[in-house]
Design goal:
The structure holds 2 protein chains of 2 kinds. Chain A has strands at residues 4-7, 10-13, 19-25, 32-38, 45-51, 57-58, 67-73, 76-81, 90-97, 104-106, 110-114. Chain A is an all-beta fold. In chain B, the strands form 2 sheets. A 5-stranded mixed β-sheet of chain B has the order 1-9-8-3-4, with no helix packed on it. In chain B, strands 2-7-6-5 form a 4-stranded antiparallel β-sheet, with no helix packed on it.
Chain lengths: 115, 110
């Protein structure tokens, strides 16, 4: 089946530094990808919609200057958490909408811990 | 986005069928009913989706009410590996996004 891969699976960074998470659709093209954040025992919260070749659309309350999204190709989107702080520690999940068929597939998620 | 309502949790015995309900009384004509499940510390996994007719695949069956205001995900024989949070989501496809509610946490016991 369709596969979406995230890298890294987990990362620990120091407060004030930036960290990049990659999301790749391995066997299909995805003009649109989505980034979610999930805190323990909570549901997924959509952060932004990433569109290939154009600016991302951020959900209300999500700082676009803090969570930088780049979608440079039909198979890759990246999320950069800039100047990370401990409250940014979370499970970050990406998903990709297959161009043919519209089904959305999710990555395995990336654990970010900011110390 | 149209909202869905699911029970917070359900329990099932292994090898027995499980019926997970979802209410979506404000569904529009273009909304597809999608089900995803999320195992601990993993991203959501696509289960099944439908529009009006009942659907079957290797994972589950989806029964959609005639008025489309509710649906039921059916796991024919629950196993321990089916223990997860199941999300029922309305999705219109292109130019739409998946918005997650709280889902139903399914516990499967021996």
């Amino acid at each position: 089946g369709a596969v979406v891969s995230q890298h890294p699976s987990w990362v620990i960074c120091k407060s004030g530094t930036s960290v990049k998470i990659e999301c790749r659709s391995l066997d299909f093209q995805a003009t649109t990808m989505f980034w979610y954040r999930q805190f323990p025992k909570q549901s997924l919260m959509l952060m932004a919609t990433s569109n290939e070749g154009s600016k991302a659309t951020y959900e209300q309350g999500v700082e676009k200057d803090k969570f930088l999204i780049n979608h440079a190709s039909l198979t890759l989107s990246t999320l950069t958490v800039t100047s990370a702080h401990p409250e940014d520690s979370s499970f970050y999940i990406c998903s990709a909408r297959r161009n043919s068929g519209n089904t959305i597939y999710f990555g395995e998620g990336s654990w970010l811990t900011v110390v | 986005d149209a909202k869905t309502t699911q029970p917070n949790s359900m329990e099932s015995n292994e090898e027995e069928p499980v019926h997970l309900p979802c209410n979506h009384s404000t569904i529009s004509g273009t909304d597809y009913i999608h089900w995803y499940r999320q195992l601990p510390s993993q991203g959501p996994e696509y289960v099944i989706h439908g529009l009006t007719s009942n659907v079957n695949n290797r994972m589950a069956s989806l029964a959609i009410a005639e008025d489309r205001k509710s649906s039921t995900l059916i796991l024919h024989r629950a196993t321990l590996r089916d223990a997860a949070v199941y999300y029922c989501i309305l999705y219109t496809g292109t130019a739409s996004k998946l918005t997650f509610g709280t889902g139903t946490r399914l516990q499967v016991t021996l």
